[in-house]
Amino acid sequence: MSKISGIQGQVLQVTVVSGKKLRDTEMFTEQDPYVCLEYANSRLRTRTCKDGGRNPVFGEKFQIPLVEGLTDLNIVVWNSNTLRQDDFIGSGRVQLEKVLLQGYDDSSWPIQTRNLKPAGQVQLVMQSSGTSKKQKASASAPHAAPPASPYGPPPPPLGYPPVAVNIYPGAGHPPPGAPYQPYGQPYAPPPAGYYYPPPAGSYPGNYPPHC
């Protein structure tokens, strides 16, 4: 089973170029060959090559609409007769994988008799109007990652350094945790004979004197 898909609606162009060393069905005269192409519902026929004999030349071009899943066509070669039925020369099968994947195929295809004996070759030149999904998948395959930059990632932004705060700006202040000096007598005692003022409210009522 063919893995080629996505050909529905595309057009296959087939040129029937010539026949080569065809089986001769005539005994006394040159045979008059013609070629039939069979694909899906298409039935196409070349002109008759009068007196073409074993090596007829056709050079006829045909347009065949493609059908999804059908990737081969049949060729049948006949000898045209006037007074009797046409003679069967040979037939063969043409594989379309190459033309569907590459877009072009120029090959000679062998034909055989009904007894599977060689009956010559038919040269076909084929071109495809589109691209199969198999080829599209190959074309859209992921590419190699671009080379890494020789430069490393930028360094993180630098912050401002912390500001040291001296909670004891004065030189005479003790460092944190140092014990305070114990309380003592803040003032020297007064000299002997020093008179302390009386407490408030202890003055006589006439003090200060009234004017």
From TrEMBL:
Name the UniProt record assigns to this protein: Calcium-dependent lipid-binding (CaLB domain) family protein
For bias type Pro residues, the affected ranges are 144-156
In the UniProt record, the signal sequence range is none
- Quote the Pfam families the UniProt record gives: C2
What the entry lists under CDD domains is as follows: C2
Q: Which residues form the C2 domain?
A: 1-110
Q: Which InterPro entries does the record associate with it?
A: C2_dom, C2_domain_sf, Ingression_C2_domain
SMART domains xrefs? C2
Region annotated Disordered, chain positions: 125-156
